[in-house]
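Notes from the 1:1 (GR / supervisor)

We went over the backlog. Supervisor wanted to see one worked example end to end before approving the batch request, so GR pasted a single chain during the call. The sequence is below; no edits were made to it. Supervisor asked that the structure be written out right there so they could see what the output format looks like.
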Amino acid sequence: MLVAVITLVLFIAALFTKGLSHDLFLETGVFLVSVKIIVMNYRNNVAVRELSEKLDRVLATLAKKGN
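Structure output shown during the call:
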């Protein structure tokens, strides 16, 4: 969350310092890449959590069958 806030603040600062020029496209691209990385990181964390829960259920089932 901190990275998203810092990226947004820097993007807004670049918007005010550079104005509406060609460089704004570059700044927008950097901002969008940062947002995409943050979203991908969130999705990966969710996927890892789900896989961990499934693995725990499989291990619990195997432990029950082993006894």
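Supervisor's comment: The mean pLDDT is 84.
Batch request approved.
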